[in-house]
Write a structure and sequence with these properties.
This protein is an alpha+beta fold and 246 residues long. It has seven helices and ten strands. The chain starts with 9 loop residues before the first helix and ends in a 20-residue tail after the last helix.
């Protein structure tokens, strides 16, 4: 691995800081399909609750995947038994914690997950007195959120049926579900494999492009990370400063 200027590779630096990404894939269900519902008369001083569909059985997403009814049955049972959890972030913010730790904050909790004849129906509650959650609530109420996006672990090949034009996923486990304002499925994600594939500074810059960071922004971010833990440079001394004393 090519080392950065401070002698520490960026992936190693992030790992040492506790930066571990779950190996998950994300798929968004657009707002018009997820049938978001909430009580428009909810008290602003009380936790905001909403419901919608994170997955629809009749939908084939842009990755050529269709979840079938029953795909989340085992997972939902595990959540109910306390053996699994389903987190709530905004725009899969845990993926951007390396940019700003605020993005990695959970904005609420999912109160109920259930499968019905339409799809995976979820009921969520936004955390009160939480700055980021407050902003998400405002966007949900104004309907500027485009959809719900699931982050799921890679299914076992035995649970995937290839039908040629698309595949059917018969069983999957979720990591989290995010209210999102992205216009389409999010294909950009960070996994441990991605981190291992970053061997040079150029690899890192190519990786950062998927987050819409151009060359200048990528360079600035890398330089900022390189400066972590480094002493502040001493100010340059004016060799003619003694003349001021004359």
């Amino acid at each position: 691995m090519k080392l950065l200027n401070d002698g520490i590779g960026l992936p190693l630096l992030l790992r040492n800081a506790g930066f571990q990404m779950p190996d998950v894939q994300t798929r968004l269900l657009p707002f018009q399909d997820m049938q978001l519902r909430f009580d428009e008369q909810q008290d602003q001083n009380k936790p905001f609750e909403f419901e919608g569909y994170a997955v629809r059985w009749d939908s084939i997403n842009s990755h050529g995947e269709q979840f079938v009814k029953g795909a989340f049955t085992d997972y939902i049972n595990a959540v109910k038994a306390g053996a699994a959890r389903c987190h709530m972030y905004y725009n899969h913010g845990y993926q951007l914690v390396w940019v700003n730790p605020t993005y990695g904050m959970r904005i609420g909790k999912w109160l109920n997950l259930e499968e019905d004849d339409i799809g995976l129906k979820v009921t969520g509650r936004i955390t009160p007195n939480h700055s980021l959650a407050h902003d998400v609530r405002a966007m949900l109420e104004d309907k500027t959120i485009d959809g719900l996006s699931v982050a799921f672990f890679r299914p076992n090949p035995m649970d995937v049926e290839d039908l040629g034009e698309y595949v059917r996923i018969k069983r999957a486990n979720l990591y989290e579900i995010s209210p999102c304002d992205e216009p389409s499925d999010r294909n950009a994600r960070i996994t441990d494999a991605d981190m291992r594939n970053i061997q040079t500074e150029d690899d890192l810059k190519r990786f950062l492009r998927q987050f819409n960071l151009d060359e200048a922004a990528s360079t600035a971010l890398i330089q900022r990370v390189q400066s972590f833990g480094q002493p502040e440079p001493e100010p340059k001394k004016d060799p003619f400063a003694w003349l001021d004393q004359v």
